[in-house]
């Protein structure tokens, strides 16, 4: 009788062994900040395969986007042409659902490959193990949603990624470093792994890669400027001048609300007070897969006196599932007043207007921390 080894075909490199073994050494939480091409997903897939065969349960492997999960993991392969799913040999797979990207193993374990762009789709599930790949690019609400489930059932969660500024992954790293009993944490650059040399990185730069991007991707720099960030200068100045802080909110100044509509994608409501020439961003509401009635209730639950609601041009689009009414009419029916629909403008015009306003803007640090990181990260993609 032949013996099947799981994970199949995985031989950990020396620098990969501490991460691969940390789950079996009792760690329930872990964060690996590794440079690009370090094999983060290869190690995570091996850890997933071993864990799913040892304890029967539901496991999640989550990327920032569902389409990315299919392309990078479900259908992806390494530089040698070995598929990522090869760590699960055919002998241990009972069923493979290609449409929904679910593996069912012969011991009963089920593995879901997901995107955090629509985490609400897994409501009601009870995973005992979760892997977040490229966590710096995830919506942090996904971890907030899954955290209490894993606490209740004694499950584990591991995260990997390459820096994208001092965002939620940076904060997680600092927290993990303060709690070594609970967390495994590790930062590996090319100097630690030897996968690439400094000369090879310089060659990438000579061939067109921005040096800041190289520092980020290969040396795991959280301080490297995000290449092509539209608001980098304005946000740096805002921080230097102390305009990102927990300033007191004037309860008597009317609050205007700027709406960025979305249904499947995130819908964002930004709460703004204008005091003289200063623009104070005091609060943010963001969610996805929620109807307009949910946002109307959120507005009612806030302690603000509202001024105007500024809405994008597509607020007049009719919704088939709502009797053909426009979303503007729906908001009126929900009791909102002073609704102003703005004319359509180009993305570049919008970027230019935001850039000018930021130089006289103050942002509430605690209530709007995700907006601060989003503004820092908003950038053009280099082709």
Structure description:
Helices cover 32% and strands 22% of the residues. The chain has helices at 17-22, 40-54, 66-74, 141-153, 168-178, 190-193, 198-206, 211-219, 232-240, 292-301, 327-333, 347-358, 369-377, and strands spanning 29-34, 58-63, 93-97, 102-105, 110-115, 127-132, 156-161, 183-188, 244-245, 255-260, 267-275, 278-287, 306-311, 339-341, 361-364. The strands form 2 sheets. The protein has an 8-stranded mixed β-sheet, with helices on both faces. Strands 9-15-12-11-10-13-14 form a 7-stranded mixed β-sheet, sandwiched between helices. The model has no long low-confidence stretch (mean pLDDT 89).
Helix share bin: 25-40%
> What gap, in angstroms, lies between the N and C termini?
53 Å
Please state how the strands of the largest beta sheet are arranged side by side.
Answer: 3-4-5-2-6-7-1-8
- Note poorly predicted spans: none
Based on secondary structure, the structural category is alpha/beta
Q: Describe the largest sheet.
A: 8 strands, mixed
**Beta-strand percent range:** 15-25%
Mean pLDDT: 89
DSSP summary, beta strand count: 15
